[in-house]
Amino acid sequence: MSTKRPKSTTTTSKGKDKKADESSAGSVAGSGHPNDILPLTLTSATQELFGCRCDEDVTGDNPYKILRKEDIVQDMRMRAAVSDFSPMKQLVLDYPEDELLLVYDRDFIYGSSFYLVLTADAKERHLKVIEVALEREPSEVFAAQKTSEPQPWISLGSEQEIEEESVTDSRPRLKYRISRVRREFGAPIFFSDRNAMETKDGFIECTPYQDKNFSLKQMERHTGVQTIPNLKSSSTQTQWTYPRSMCTQYEPREFSEEKKENCLQSEKLKNFVNSVASRFEIAIQQNEIMDVFFDDWKALSEEDSGYGRKADPHLKEYQSFTDLHFSKEKTISNINWHPTINGVIAVAVTERLSFEDRINGSTKLLLNPSLILFWSFSDPINPQLLLECPDDVFSFEFCPSDPNIIVGGCMNGQVVLWDISTHVEQLQGTRTSGGKNIAANTNALRENETPVVRYCAVSGIENGHKAPITDIQWLPGTFEVSRMGVPMENKNGICVQIVTCAPDCCVMFWDIRAPRVLQTMADQRKQKVEEKPLENPHGVPNTFKHLDLTWKPLIRVQHISYCKTRLQLVLSTTFCPQDGELVYTDWKLEKDNDSGRLFSAKPSHRFIIHDGQVNTVRRSPFFKDIILTVGGWTFAIWKEGVTNGPIIQSSCSQKKCTVGYWSQSRPAVLFIGKEDGNIDVWDLLEKTHEPSQTQNITATQITCIKPWIVSSKQHLLAVSDHLGTLHILEIPWTLRSPSSNEKLSMSKYFEKEVDRLVYFEKRREMRAKEKKDYEAEELRKKTYLISHQPVIFIIGTLKL
Amino acid sequence: MAEVEETLKRIQTHKGVIGTIVVNAEGIPIRTTLDNSTTVQYTGLLHQLTMKARSTVRDIDPQNDLAFLRIRSKKHEIMVAPDKEYLLIVIQNPSE
């Protein structure tokens, strides 16, 4: 870069010189032309004046015109500045000769239309050229190849350039002579160190410096920015303690007796008690007078709503089940709701024949097996399940702890067990599937028929009752009974024992577990012999195989001359009614010292209240000691412990009462079924002389009533009649929701009745005593009279 | 002593009164008509509650002090009378 600049200046300077040369020459064009000619332009006026008009006087062939110097000078004087020759005035005056040559430059070789030759030599030359040209024209054709003769070199200014370029010595050449001592030639070389810092300029340093060229200042930068919360790292060290199990036992602080005494004696306590006592009195009295927080408004509304709904207190028919195959000509003897599966109810169908008819038609009966039907709400036409029984079943129960086990008591005195665990899903499925699958299910059932479950265990004929089993109950799962009749706690919690009763004066306890090893050897052997491995026909489950056909009752309670038809159990006593008689016994077995046999104690109480057979003995679900009995034309309510008689006894109704049951949700309500198919609803708080409601359900006798609570909104009552139809009724709101304090009112009512009974008893005793006194008095009076009156003998003769 | 007994008996024999307890300042029962475990439970709980109630009243107005505390529950009414050194608790069933 640095070297280039001088060159450019020289070139420009050269250019300028050239222009200066050319301008000094006075020429317009830049092309080179000799110095002795001067191109000029002549106006037409000047051309006419000098007779050198273009293309007339002077032509291409004859371009030369001689002009006299004097003419030119004259023209210049006359026309002064306007004259064409004025720029070269001086040159014209300097011209030595008289005549100047003007050449017509038709081709504009020198830039103008004319040029003036300034020097005589040039003139001569030109004229010569003209002459030669004029002369040579003819000869040029012939002698074209004439060799050119060397001409003397005319300097045109090019030697200057050459001079510049040539290299010449600008100064004389320098001569140097170097010499060295001869002995030093070829001598060994010894190197030594020398500190460069010693001498000044011992070394030349090239120090680094910051080249400013490379320190770029970035004026613009493209960056992104992100904000984050303030981060702060910190740490702590905590003391790590080992967890250790520890426990503390504490008891509240108490004063010792003497300390308490001291406190009580203190004066301060006396003052305190005296001061606060008045406040307490006020407060307590306030509470006694009136309960300030009692909501009268709310309490009022409850009673009101009862009246409002009087229009609709009837039991509404919900569904009814009857089967053409199985329950034709038959009656239902017992109903039971399935304890766990909603909407499944089981009924026991029995023949509607009297004893003689049964004997007469026994062969036909053997062909028709007796059944227990399972109905489900989802299918009112076909029963879901059939349980096959060896004989008509009068009573059956679901096991409370395991609803798959059902025990039934037959007419021939056998106790039968069923296990329906294989069919439970089907029972549940028909209920839950509901509308969608009902078509499929019914089709399947119609194709396959209702499944029949055979009993899986039955007691031996000789071991069972001798009369139809009329009632059968499971012992609650919390206790069991030992062989001696002592109730013990059942650790399992599952129900394992059953009590049955029959009109053959027996109450039997049965155990469904395998017989224990503690039995005597004889029994064991006997049982082993009987216990053959049984095949299971019809796919009956093996649940009770150990019992089948060999089942013996655990305890047999024999009551002399009493027959039993119904049982109701509690911890240690039984309430067994029979034909009109109600017997209250304790079934603990006692040992007779004489014979060593076990027999039961005599019944403690017996009552004859009902006119006919007692068909119902039921405990109230709300009061543990209140029992309802229904029989003949009346029903009675008893309280355990009150041995004078029933605390409430109803008046005789028109028709026989066949069955009764307490309401499950209202302590004061009970349902009585009649011979004519009516259901009487008794509300004991409303009226006790007649039923509060009577409703006709069916045309024939009602055989069984069982209520069931499905949900808080739906309470159902299952009623079966003599024709074999099962009616399901819905209990209306008035009959299922208890009024406020109903239980309290009922218990008070019962207490009042008990008091009444006690009072009557007292009165009776008093009366009896009075009567006795009165009679004694009378007798005394009479004897006195007799003794003080004359005796008149009247002899009468007998005529034979 | 007899006076104290008499007063307490008078309170006890009112209609509906279930029990009375006399408690000292530390929360230890001195005299009671209920069984031991119930007494201890009532004493412990009510002592704390009374202290809290008293401090509440005094916080609002330091010149004020708790005179009587009645707790009405669904089943009973519990009445507590505090003192500087003693506490008397009465439990009554009002709706009989």
Automatic annotation (TrEMBL), chain A:
It comes from the Eukaryota. GO terms for biological process: cilium movement involved in cell motility; inner dynein arm assembly. One of its GO terms (cellular component) is inner dynein arm. Residues 1-36 are annotated as: Disordered. Its main location: cytoplasm. It is found in: Cytoplasm. Keywords: Cytoplasm, Repeat, WD repeat. Gene3D superfamilies: YVTN repeat-like/Quinoprotein amine dehydrogenase. SMART domains: WD40. The keyword Cytoplasm applies. One of its GO terms (molecular function) is dynein heavy chain binding. This is Dynein axonemal intermediate chain 3.
From TrEMBL, chain B:
It is found in: Cytoplasm, Cytoskeleton. Gene3D superfamilies: Dynein light chain 2a, cytoplasmic (3.30.450.30). Signal peptide: none annotated. Coiled coil: none annotated. InterPro entries: DYNLRB1/2, Roadblock/LAMTOR2_dom. Its main location: cytoplasm. GO terms for cellular component: cytoplasm; cytoplasmic dynein complex; microtubule. This is Dynein light chain roadblock. Residues 4-92 form the Roadblock/LAMTOR2 domain. It holds the Pfam family Robl_LC7. One of its GO terms (molecular function) is dynein intermediate chain binding. It comes from Oncorhynchus mykiss. Acts as one of several non-catalytic accessory components of the cytoplasmic dynein 1 complex that are thought to be involved in linking dynein to cargos and to adapter proteins that regulate dynein function. Cytoplasmic dynein 1 acts as a motor for the intracellular retrograde motility of vesicles and organelles along microtubules. Keywords: Cytoplasm, Cytoskeleton, Dynein, Microtubule, Motor protein, Transport. GO terms for biological process: microtubule-based movement. Belongs to the GAMAD family.
